[in-house]
Each structure stands twice: as C-alpha cells, then as structure tokens.
Write a structure and sequence with these properties.
Layout (H helix, E strand, L loop, with lengths): L5 H15 L21 E4 L9 H5 L5 E10 L9 E12 L8 H5 L5 E4 L13 E2 L1 H7 L17 H35 L1
Antiparallel strand pairs: 1-4, 2-3, 3-5
C-alpha cells in the first residue's frame, strides 16, 4: 500500500536540499570568469612578423583565413648588388564564424605572427562582422599574455647563449683595448715627470 503524498514529500525534500547548497552559478556579465592562463579565445596578428608565406591559410581546415599580398622590388643595398623582391601584406582576415579554434594556423606559422588571446567577448549581431581584418587582429595582440617562464633548471636557449658569448667576447676586446690605451698613456705621463 502506498503512503499518500509520498511523491510530494520526496520532491519537497529534494527542493529543500538544493536550496541549502551553495550555488556555483557565476553572474557572467557582472562578474568576469577566472580563465586559465593560456585560454584560447581569439587569434591576434603580429603583422611585423608576417612574411605572407600563406602557410596558415593553406593548413587551415576550414579555409577561414584570407590573405592578399603584392610583390615590391627593394633596391640593392650595395652598389653593384641586385634588386630583391619581397611580399607585402595587403589583407589578412580571419572569419571567426567559420573558425573552429583548432590552433593549426598558430602552430604552423614559422615566424610567430599569430598568437592566442584569451579575449572571448567579440559577439556580433551580424555574422558578416565576425570577419576580422588585420587592424582588428592587431588590436587583439595587446591582450596576448606573456609566455610562461622557463623552467629554472632548463638549459639556456641556444640563441641567448650565442648572444651572451659574442657579448662577452666584445666586452673582453673592449677591456683589452682600454688596458692597452691605459698602458700607452702611463709611460708618457712618467716621462713628463
């Protein structure tokens, strides 16, 4: 035999139990979420590093990167040298309505021109406005976090070691030159006395 109103009592018990628990809801527009340090939000473009190699556009599985460029002739740097041509970036755009945030474009870029920014608030009312041109992508670069610190026990990067070695050689050469000049001045001063 069933007890009358037992279902209602069980439902009210669940409701009361839920009411006494701490809420985990974040009030998003008012309180910004605490995101992990390397969150994938939007892609920023460091235009100075882009050589228009087109690797990012070719490797993109969604074909959402649009690049236009032209070639310019650079005059010879030395007399008798030959002119060189280089690619100049005219347009770099990413259609974020198509992008699946896989990060392949960032990984294949050999010149570190693309970076993840943790910004995620770029919703638009018109889907056509989700195609960000290079000026908008450049603005996202200001929000890119600094790279994580290296492990203190890690080996020093080869570039820094080579730069330090050449700086030490230069400093040693300058010190030797200064000592040599000091030695030349010292006998002159002794002879005058």
């Amino acid at each position: 035999m069933s007890v009358p109103f037992s279902g209602l009592a069980k439902g009210l018990a669940v409701t009361l139990r839920t009411m006494t628990k701490k809420t985990v809801t974040e009030q998003y527009p008012d309180v910004q979420p605490d995101l992990p340090p390397r969150t994938r939000g939007v892609i920023g473009l460091f235009e100075e590093n882009c050589t228009v190699c087109m690797l990012c556009a070719r490797e993109c599985p969604d074909w959402c990167i649009y690049i236009d460029s032209h070639k310019e002739t650079v005059p010879a740097a030395t007399p008798g040298g030959r002119e060189r041509s280089r690619n100049v970036l005219d347009r770099f755009a990413i259609d974020f309505s198509l992008c699946m945030y896989c990060g392949i474009c960032i990984e294949v870029c050999p010149f570190d021109a693309l970076f993840w920014s943790p910004e995620f608030e770029y919703a638009e009312t018109d889907i056509r406005e989700l195609t960000h041109e290079r000026d908008k992508l450049r603005e996202w670069m200001w929000t890119v976090p600094a790279p994580p610190a290296l492990d203190p026990h890690a080996e020093e990067p080869k570039e820094i070691a080579a730069a330090r070695k050449s700086a030490d050689k230069l400093a040693a050469a300058q010190a030797a030159e200064a000592a040599e000049q000091q030695a030349e001045q010292t006998p002159d001063q002794e002879g005058g006395q």
